[in-house]
Amino acid sequence: MANASIKIDTRAIQKQLSDMAKQIPFATATALNSIAFDVMRKENDSMAEIFDNPRPFTQRATQVEKKASKTDLTAVVSLRPAQERYLLPYEEGGQHATSGNAGKLLVPVDGPVDRYGQIPKGMIARLMQRPDVFAGTIKGIEGIWQRPASGNQRNGGKGVKGRLSTLGTKKTGLSLLYAWRENKSVNKSLGFVDRARKIIEASSPQALQAAIQKAIRTAR
After folding, report:
1. Any idea what the Cα angle at residue 184 is, between residues 178 and 185, rounded to 5°?
2. 200 CB-near residues (< 8 Å, 6+ apart)
3. Cβ-based burial of 27 (10 A; exposed 0-12, middle 13-18, buried ≥19)
4. pLDDT tens per residue across span 54-107
5. Backbone angles phi, psi at 138, to 5 degrees
6. 205: helix, coil or strand?
7. pLDDT average, residue stretch 8-37
8. Coil, strand or helix: which one is 45?
9. CB 144 within 8 A of CB 178
């Protein structure tokens, strides 16, 4: 029987495999960052589904706090500190986040609100600079009040202008702009962590495949 001997030079293959091994950390970091930004976008998109007409500030609450690198294969997605302060109760449970006035909530009554139905930033400070606005408790109602305008009346006298409102059983010209209400537990769930886990599970296979293909293309 004739014998045949075949030799194959595997050095090129070994080098290619070695080069690919070097690309594994790059591919892993690429996949992690792709998944992290996917989580960020979808967490932010969910704000409009959870809350009624949320401010853009709330819809930008999620951030990629830390990107992964070849030497540190960790990506961190988190809530931005300013938004976390008032969103955390929706994740962990408890009462609405408050500041000042013994933990009570300041809610609009007849005072100015923005198009999202919330008190505009700096509005209270601006109103309190007006001589006709004051903070106090009237008939047991604690809040921000506006005194009535006064001037000439139809009968020639001076007094309150405009229509009087009813406070309790008495007519008054005072307008309740904002009222302090007792705090209460939140009635919505953010589901931040659970949603992130589901997004990671769904996104990982495609992100890993895309990262490996990119690593192959860019291998040197």
Report:
1. 135
2. 35, 39
3. buried
4. 999 999 999 999 999 989 889 999 999 999 999 999 999 888 887 766 678 888
5. -120, 125
6. helix
7. 74
8. helix
9. yes
Instruction: Kindly report, residue by residue over 194-219, the tens digit of the pLDDT.
Output: 999 999 999 888 888 888 888 777 76
pLDDT score, position 9: 52
Residue with tokens 């045949």: 4
Question: Rounded CA gap, 199 and 59, in Å?
Answer: 18
**H or E stretch including 206?**
helix 192-218
Tell me the C-alpha distance between 40 and 61, whole Å: 9
DSSP 122-156: THHHHHTTSTTEEEEEETTEEEEEEPPPEEE-TTS
- A 10 A CB-CB count for 137 gives 10
